[in-house]
Amino acid sequence: MVYFKDWEEFHEASMKLYQSNPQKTRFTMKYRHCDGVLVLKVTDDKTCLKYAVSYSQDLHEVEKITNSLLRLMASKDIQEPKKPQQSNNQQDNEKEKPKNNQNKQNKRKKHQD
């Protein structure tokens, strides 16, 4: 686990790692009080990317990567699971159900009148 020295390289590598495997990628932050360092870590259990922030001026970059990753993680395009395809018989049965409900409602109205 090597720490990145350049912020832009870490940001780009993190985005690529997430986009390559969105289901397994994790993003964590850990503040080490003894060192006064905030450690950012992006991993998919095979690749581990780390970056250490030691200056309060760099917290703007932390907010930037957090927002970028959260936007990707909340996007429907990347994480939307594929729906299983239904057979023709199942689709036909689903089409018939609303008709049966309408017929029942019509019969109830006739009995009430």
TrEMBL record:
Q: Which GO terms describe its cellular component?
A: cytosol; signal recognition particle, endoplasmic reticulum targeting
Q: SRP9 domain: which residues?
A: 4-71
Which residue intervals make up region (Disordered)? 75-113
Quote the Gene3D superfamilies the UniProt record gives. Answer: Signal recognition particle alu RNA binding heterodimer, srp9/1 (3.30.720.10)
Cell location: Cytoplasm
Q: What keywords were assigned to this record? A: Cytoplasm, Ribonucleoprotein, RNA-binding, Signal recognition particle
The UniProt GO MF terms for this protein read: 7S RNA binding
Which Pfam families does this chain map to? Answer: SRP9-21
Name a single GO biological process: SRP-dependent cotranslational protein targeting to membrane
- Keyword Thylakoid present in the record's keywords: the answer is no
User: What is the annotated role of this protein in its UniProt record?
Assistant: Component of the signal recognition particle (SRP) complex, a ribonucleoprotein complex that mediates the cotranslational targeting of secretory and membrane proteins to the endoplasmic reticulum (ER). SRP9 together with SRP14 and the Alu portion of the SRP RNA, constitutes the elongation arrest domain of SRP. The complex of SRP9 and SRP14 is required for SRP RNA binding.
Q: Which family does it belong to?
A: Belongs to the SRP9 family.
PANTHER family, per the entry: SIGNAL RECOGNITION PARTICLE 9 KDA PROTEIN
**Name of the protein in its database record:** Signal recognition particle 9 kDa protein
Organism name: Anaeramoeba ignava
The organism's lineage is:
Eukaryota, Metamonada, Anaeramoebidae, Anaeramoeba
